[in-house]
Amino acid sequence: MSALQLAALARTTEPQTALRRFLALDAVVTGANGVAYLVAAGPLGRLLGVDSALPAVLGAVLAAYAAAVGVLAARPRPAALPVRAVIEANLAWAVLSLLALALWLAPSTAGAVWGVLQALAVAGFAALQYAALRARQGSSA
């Protein structure tokens, strides 16, 4: 997703709407990733250079997480505490992904590139969600 597309998603005078959109985008992208990992664990494991059990387990976790984030995004005014939990989970995922690449996994080149790219994307979701939450809190003060 390009910066221009993200700007279009955020274009609203309502910080609440931007927050819900960024949560929904997170849910859709994470859910699609989770389903892909579940459906194609073997081929993706081979492409990424990891045992196929890893994408399968991650796929289940990501699908469940995406469903929870989707439920949160569907609320008219998502509560700040669960939104903060999503932001923190996203940041933890990004950090743990990079640590796993550096310390535990020995992926293929494609796997290493994918690992870094998805960590950056997830950190990006956290940053967008954090900015939207702060804007919402600022507009309600």
From TrEMBL:
The chain crosses the membrane at residues 21-40, 52-73, 85-106, 112-133. The keyword Transmembrane applies. Keywords: Membrane, Transmembrane, Transmembrane helix. This is Integral membrane protein. It comes from Streptomyces cinereospinus.
